[in-house]
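Much of our argument rests on the idea that a fold can be written as discrete symbols. The amino acid sequence and the backbone structure tokens for this protein are reproduced below:

___
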Amino acid sequence: MSRPDDRRVVITGIGVTAPGAIGTKNFWQLLTDGRTATRRISFFDPSPFRSQIAAEVDFDAELAGLTPHEIRRTDRAAQFAIVTAREAVEDSGLDLDALDPARTGVTIGSAVGATTGLDQEYRTVSDGGRLDVVDGTYAVPHLYNFLVPSSFATEVAWAVGAEGPSTVVSTGCTSGLDAVGYAAEVIRDGLADVMVAGATDAPISPIT
């Protein structure tokens, strides 16, 4: 199918927040050294579960540069996305302030959304699962952001100053690849000049 503006699309910058390494260079070193990031789960007591091994991200949101407001209102997966998007934009060398924000968009892939935040908040409002009728006043004010996966793209858009197309793609394990592919199509179709694209998940919680 022909497009009105069939343009070449290139990846100009990358960022990584992953088990065993924060930052692209650290992650590449992990891979080339052949090291693994898997270990016994430490985020919670995994003893009731048959599987107790996972690859956890050792991540401190404050040390990663997030503001107290960003930390307060975002799920762990959204925090990964913000930090990684900022690294990718810096790596790209693009001056986003010099670009038309309406021509800059965001596409984020996620398989399970804000599962960590939802799990934590349910435990809080239900008193660890003991209450059938929960008290919502104990929940964080931004609980709705955890319920709506599109908040991931919104947070990244705010972080990079994008005002163009903003989308979350959720297709299971291929969400990240599909998000990048969709972003390329948006550019080829002439709907944006720059897309910040990738994926985020933080699924290591009892419910997941």
